[in-house]
Predict the structure.
Amino acid sequence: MTQTPLPVVISCGEPAGVGPEVAARAWAALAGEVPVVWLGDPRHLPQGVAHQVIARPQEAAALSPDILPVIARDFGPPAVPGVPDPAHASHVIDTIALGVSLVRDGAASAICTAPIHKKALKEGADFAYPGHTEYLAALAGVDDVVMMLASDQLRVVPATIHIALDQVPLQLTPDSLRRVIEITHAGLRDQFGIAAPRLAVSGLNPHAGEGGTMGLQELAWMTPLIDKMRGEGFDLAGPLPADTMFHPAARTRYDAAIAMYHDQALIPIKTLDFDKGVNVTLGLPFIRTSPDHGTAFDIAGRNIANPTSMIEALRMAHRMATA
């Protein structure tokens, strides 16, 4: 007998943003392809979405596929599209924690997180984390995680994430880059089924330092580190000039690219595949994906937000969980 797959839980994210509507539209578009349970205040779903409040994810399997299963939480004040309310902050945070708990307890297969608004969380609940990724690491009790942006055209990892550009050379060290390479390699092997991952590592400086004339990090420690890890069995190319890593022929030579800072990584994938990019956190003891966009307050509540990234995030979570 075929066992019913566990659902992917969707945390509601910022209720004044597009999270609830893209979740509802993605669920409708997938039409049962991916079993889901939405976590949040049902009042924040778009008007007319057929839903049923349940107590546990296991109850979702008994519902008709045209009914969205919801584990409900009362967020207090109603949500106003485009206007984040700090009073919702603690509930947004608690919903993420609930989703993680359900996955870790074996009641759900993965968590897909809708976008949060960090300023509202800081103002309303003194949220101490730069973003989802760091909070999920704290919930999991792990020190090192990796943010991967993935689509059919490209997988890319920023070695440093939400920090100012002038802090990148200070935080980027041989130990930190080694951990990013190790976690990315393990994630591609264990969660994406790539037996021998090929990784391309960018330089930090223009033209990867051009022999020391445009920066010294590549000569001083990046090249020695990559050479050492090659000797340990890692399939690595680099450090490579970032401006020549992302054209079509170059992308056929690796399974993921590791870039040194946020924009060096995210500009290529958002240019190549803006709507289908998915945020995946590697290094967690559970599966987490997210759409690669923000709260989009300017169009929230109009039910016109593109659900493609949420659709792909749910598909990827389900594939990773059932592989």
About this structure: The mean pLDDT is 95. The longest strand covers residues 235-240. The first helix runs from residue 19 to 30.
